[in-house]
Amino acid sequence: MPEMSGDADAAFLNRLADRLAALPGVRAVALGGSRAQGTHTAASDWDTAVYYRGSEGAFTPQDLRDLCELRATEWDGEVSEIGGWGGGVFNGGAWLTVEERRVDVHYRDLDVVEHELAEADAGRFHCEPLMFHLAGIPSYLVVAELAVNRVLRGQTPPGPDPYPPALRESAPREWWGRADMTLRYALANNAPRGGRTEVAGAVAVAAMQAAHAVLAARGEWVTNEKPLLERAGVRDVDDIVGRMRADPDSLADAVTQARELLRRKVAGAGEGGRGAVHLA
């Protein structure tokens, strides 16, 4: 990847946004990830989203493939079909190299985004599996993007401000319920068999779920899992995983310690003007 100056980065981003915005059916283009939030490094990729309205049927991935073929010396990569990444709110995209820079393009259907915006305002969401995400993703991820991403071309619905109170009330309990059940299952089924790998996996998943609960209780948006444990202050779960031995008693102790730690973090997450999260 070439080393870039601020002016060169800006010029590249303008070219990228112009070409994505010119695709048929694209209503808006946004910059996401670390580059939108100012936490990127020179090695960070460029996360973008193209917003279209699925009910219109005007946007097709083939147009993006055609663009890559037309500019083959500058654009190369893999373009999925709509729904090619498992469907749901995270419904496909492209992994590209554009002018020697790594670029991700995410498809965002405005019909889906507007539905999830209304659901989040009402305190409702669901979780979906997604590769590379241990806990999966909440459907309000596309709402979080509205709040933290930078619109480059066109217009997207405004992100909610403040964080929806109903979601801040419901999401911590839902995420903690998932974490608690994950740990209870490991305690009853994996630890007695001495399954260190299974127990370690369960603790890792539960830690991510609990971290989602903490950040929802704080009213902080989450768009991916990479910094999730640090942001939620549950990185000390690493010590519990590191001490695991492949015997039932050690593994049972590890699950119990993890549950106590994570429950304490979630229960206290609403403090500081809002009151503690009440857990079952």
Describe the structure in your own words.
This protein has ten helices and eight strands. The chain is of the alpha+beta class and 280 residues long. It folds into two domains: 6-154, Beta Polymerase, domain 2 (2-Layer Sandwich), CATH 3.30.460.10; 165-267, no CATH class. The strands form two sheets. A six-stranded mixed β-sheet has the order 3-4-5-2-1-8, sandwiched between helices. A two-stranded antiparallel sheet has the order 6-7. The protein is elongated, with a radius of gyration of 21 Å. The N and C termini lie far apart (50 Å). The model has no long low-confidence stretch (mean pLDDT 93).
Question: Can I get a quick summary?
Answer:
This protein has 280 residues and is α+β, with helices and mostly antiparallel strands.
Task: Identify the notable features of this structure and list them briefly.
Beta Polymerase, domain 2; 15% strand; 280 residues; alpha+beta; NT_sf; six-stranded mixed sheet; elongated; two-stranded antiparallel sheet; 2 domains
